[in-house]
Amino acid sequence: MYHNMLNLLSILMLISAFSLIANKRQNSYISTFRFQSALLAGISLLVSVRAMIVTKAFDEVLIMFMLIVVFKVVVIPRYMKSTAERVEYKVEKDFFINIPMSMIICCGLVVLSWYVIYNIDGITDLDTKNYLIYSFSVVLLGLFFMISRKKAIGQIIGFLVIENGMFLAAMLTTEGMPMIVELGLFFDLLTAFIIMGIFVFKINSTFESIDINKLKNLKG
Amino acid sequence: MSADYLTISFIVCIILYLTGAISALATYSKPKVSNFLSNIFSFLAGSLLGISVIIKLLFLKSYNITFDFQNNIPFLNFNFKIDNLSAFFLLITGVVSLIVSIYSFTYMKRFFFKKNVGIFGALYNLFILSMVLLASSNNMLLFLVLWELMSLLSYFLVIYEHEKDEVQKAGRTYIIMTYTGTAFITAAFLLMAYFTKSFELSALSSELIPKGYADLIYVFLLLGFGTKAGIIPMHIWLPYAYTEAPGNVAAIMSAVMKKLSIYGMLRIIYFVLPENAMWWGVLTLIIGTVSAVFGIAYSVASTINIKRLLSYSSIENMGIIFCGMGVMLIARASGNSFLLSLALTAVLLHTLNHALFKSLLFMGAGAIQYITGTRNMEKLGGLIKKMPYAAAFVFVGCLAIAAVPPFNGFASEYIVFQSIINSIVWFVPSRQFPIIILFVIVAACLAITGALVAFSYVKLFGISFLGMPRSPEAENAKEPEKPMLAAMAISALLCMVAGICLKSVIKLIDNVSVELINIKLLAYDWSLSDFMHYPLGNGELSVSTGQIAGLIAVLALIVLAVVLMLRKRTTVQKYNTWDCGFTKLTPKMQYSAIGFSKSVRIVFRGLFKPNRDLVVTEGSGPYFMKKGNYVLSTEKVIEKYLYKPVILAILNFSRKTRYKIQTGSIHVYLMYFFCALVLMLLYYSFAA
Amino acid sequence: MIESILKLIIQIMITLLIAPLFTGVIRKMKAKVQHRVGASVFQPYFDLTKLFKKDLVVSGTASWIYNLAPYVYFITALAAMCCLPVVYGLTGFSFYTDLLVVVYLFVGGRIFMALAALDTGSTFGGMGSSREMLVSALVEPALFIVIITISARTEIASTNIADIYKYMAVNTGTAFTPMNILLFASTLLILIAETSRIPVDDPATHLELTMVHEAMILEYSGRHLAFIELGTYIKQLVFMTIMANILIPAGFDNSNFILGFGIYLLKLLVITVLVGLVELNTVKFRLYSIPNFAVIALVISILGFFTGFILR
Known about the structure:
heterotrimer; B: two-stranded antiparallel ribbon; 6% strand; globular; C: globular; cell membrane (chain A); transmembrane (chain A); transmembrane helix (chain A)
């Protein structure tokens, strides 16, 4: 039952990554990311509660759960929304690859990650294998999302999705990494996020657009 | 009936066809007589052939009709043998040719006193005869000779209206492609004969063929027979040839001639190459799927010509048959006999069903051309009121090809899907994932193919038969003559019967299956009580088209009762179609065939690369145009990216080498002879 | 024999009785969210009875196809519904039929409707039928993958509903597997596309830019329209039944008929609410965004297959 739930939640995370790829509105990027983070929070809650029931002691993953809820579900999306409101673009119009095609490519990416992880001999536990496949696919999809979107908001979301995927992998395969590693990761992310947020404003004010394709103009 | 009668009736058949050819030629100055004679003989021969092979298939399953004409030509024996496989394809030939002959009685009136009908009659009879003999020949060289004969005769029939430029062009493409295909078949046959030291088709000692060469032979066969079958990318001749051929010829070519390439494939797969590698099946499956999707996509999106729509849809249907063949080969390689029987049923059933409904549809298209003189859908419309019977028959054909239960198209498409589902489940426990993923992709592609078939035939029927007439020709249309209607009626009836009485059709295929793979398809014997059920393979009840038809009929009766009750209390008023309160609707305001398929062109623009061009002659202002000329073109991607480069490369190569090899000096030519001779002598002396 | 006929009749009665209800529920739900009182939940029933009594206006250009199409559409939908198991023990017509038959029956009904729309010679009709055929073609792959997964789930590769029924009867306990839920989600999207609900089509609009299904049936009136509406309701019920019973067979093995029927209704209501939520939270897509929608359904169904049969 526990693994069934985890399986389901991580599949839903994968699907939210897919729906991110299918989206083209910046607001829905943000709400999809929020949904995905909520799923991640759910997973961490599940993991921590189980660990607490088994060990009958406080589990550090619970702190992670709170951090995820506070930052990834509430703060970051809100900050992103206010950023998105200030730039002129609401809808992404031109893509390098059109949406149906990129969905199919993403399907291929899932198959690829399945194929890679399936052939790793060291992992014997089937559930762990599945979690790795899902989280690895989320990372790949996030990367693909960053490639396929031209606007800076998309880049940030893609980056955050990659981070979500790595978090998922870390949490489900190790049942919680050492606290200090996770905290370090988290603050890395936050700093990166704030820097990027500032960059968006700068790009917007310099080029009157957040199309990162225009950064090409910077080269000498 | 003793078996000897079958041999006699077969010989009588041949004589009838020959008599038809000769008598048509002899009376060519009187077109009516000539046409009547040629068709009555082919009709008689066709019905005789049909009856005798049905008897053979049902009652004389283990008896093979054989006969041998002695001659002194080395290797080439006039050796004929009709086993169950041949008989099945002869059944298709016989039934379709007999129906088309009825149709031709009046269809050929188009050409009276304009063209030489006598020659047409002779060619027509000989063409059918060549196909009959081809399906029963038991000698590779004889097969090749007849294959060539069939191709040549069909070429002459295609270019029957040779004074038109586009006909010439279509014929040229056809003959070039068909010769390319034959070259591959010849190469494959020579390889087989080289290793087995025999030209017999049925009794080859196949273990003599080395593994690598068997692969090569299969690829050659796929290319050769695939060209005739018109699968992508060897299809380029097909849409033109079928469009330009007269309606009855197109019907026979699409319904019978194409199927003979399936016959050739099956014959060689089962009698010469009893073992195959997995990748043969995978390759065939992929080619089949690509043909199905591309064929139907072109049929929907880039046609306004009825016959061209039908020919692209032929490509799609051959694609489905090749998919079945791919599953069959995969099943054989992996040793799943149930799947093998299922896929073989799919192949044979779809072959038969496609012959039935495609000949019906081509006859319908021919009837439209016969009455209105045009094949362009944009000039038709409203024909359902002018030619109600013909419209109803074509409608049945459309429903059958769109796989609506309980018509026959549903049965075969259903079994194709079943074979794919079964292969997925078969490969799951052994965890052969690449092939599972392939099958899932194929299933998705076939699903979208099925839906686009419906789209395509809604376009065909809706634009050309419904709505208001778009031209005076359509306005003045009338019902075609009775023989044409009768032929179409028989076809439509067969489509319906073959769908509902699926089990008796399976019964016909059963003996072919026993002969090829030694598996009985039907779990228990045929009797009236389980007439409608359709048990497959291991005795599980799966689907019964008869029951569904029964259910639909009962529900229809209930609805009819309700409607009759309601009708008493309500009135029906005839009024104009809603025109938004402006002026009355005109035919020009209707949706056109191009407009109807625009959505598909846009969604699949990667396949078509549509180009739009609007040239406007302005009137008194920008909003009052005098004349607008709208040109829409779609690109033939395969021609452009596959054939063009090859053709250019060949042209370049020949241009360059022309001056090096073709010097014009006779001495150099003699030198070539000399060198070739010396090299050959050297080769033989060292090889031996 | 007589028993099965009786069961079939009961199933048809149930179908006709409950099919319009869910549309009413969705409308009511939307009205509540928009702070309107909204029509009664039973409004579709009132509409239907009124339409059955009304006189007909038939286009002068139309032929017999136009007059036949509503009945064919209705009959194919009803026949499809007859194939499906509704409550434990009440299997209708399932034993000789098949999920693929259900799909192809819909194809038949759709062809008739599309042709009828072209039959009147109106531009709206042509537009509607072209779009409807496109939408159905786009979601067809997802639907087939769902069917393949369902049949692979029975482990004997059967699409026969009797076999699926056997699987359902023993697997009610383990209904909420990831595979089933993914298939459920995919079928929800297919349902939305096939029954012309909001992100794909707007059933409440009469604007030529947005109409799909409505454009096709624009010319119909009286009992023709009533049969078409009823057919659409039944089609919706077919997809809901596939989702509620076949995909998530939880609580299905209840031999108490009343209780089983109650669970069935409850599940249908949950699905209705889901459809309503999707409607409330989205706006209608442009026609050329529908491929994106269809591809999402396809991807989810493929993932469902993947989790069920490859990630094991």
